Backbone:
């Protein structure tokens, strides 16, 4: 009986639609480099939320990371949004979770209405004054 209750509780938990990271060049992320993510086609309309994640090392030289995210639906630009992810606090201590790599997630998130039978592409570029940027190992998205 207990296993049946646990199974039904777990089945009610919403799993993410997409949770994926892409590794960046160890020599740095150049301003001309764009990271792309394809969103699987959904069978029904879904109100979801987009978060951007970044994994950094101690070599990341800045307090924040400025990004621009482009969302395309069926190959046509739908919207773009600028993100600022705080990597280090005022004390200089990394704010993200982790030991060798620190993982930070964007706040606030962006509402994203996924339409049934549509293809979506999320593209991310950095908007920092320096280029290339070292100390970023991965950039990713979470859509839930």
Residues:
């Amino acid at each position: 009986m207990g296993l049946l209750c646990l199974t039904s509780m777990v089945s009610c938990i919403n799993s993410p639609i997409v949770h994926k990271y892409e590794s960046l060049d160890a020599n740095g992320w150049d301003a001309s480099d764009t990271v792309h993510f394809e969103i699987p086609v959904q069978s029904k309309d879904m109100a979801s939320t987009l978060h951007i994640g970044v994994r950094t090392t101690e070599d990341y030289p800045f307090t924040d990371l400025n990004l621009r995210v482009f969302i395309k639906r069926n190959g046509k630009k739908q919207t773009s949004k600028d993100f600022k992810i705080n990597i280090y606090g005022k004390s200089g201590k990394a704010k993200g979770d982790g030991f060798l790599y620190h993982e930070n997630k964007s706040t606030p998130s962006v509402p994203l209405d996924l339409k049934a039978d549509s293809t979506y592409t999320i593209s991310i570029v950095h908007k920092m004054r320096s280029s290339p940027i070292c100390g970023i190992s991965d950039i990713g998205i979470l859509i839930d």
Notes: The CA atoms of residues 33 and 125 lie 7 Å apart. Helices lie at 2-11.
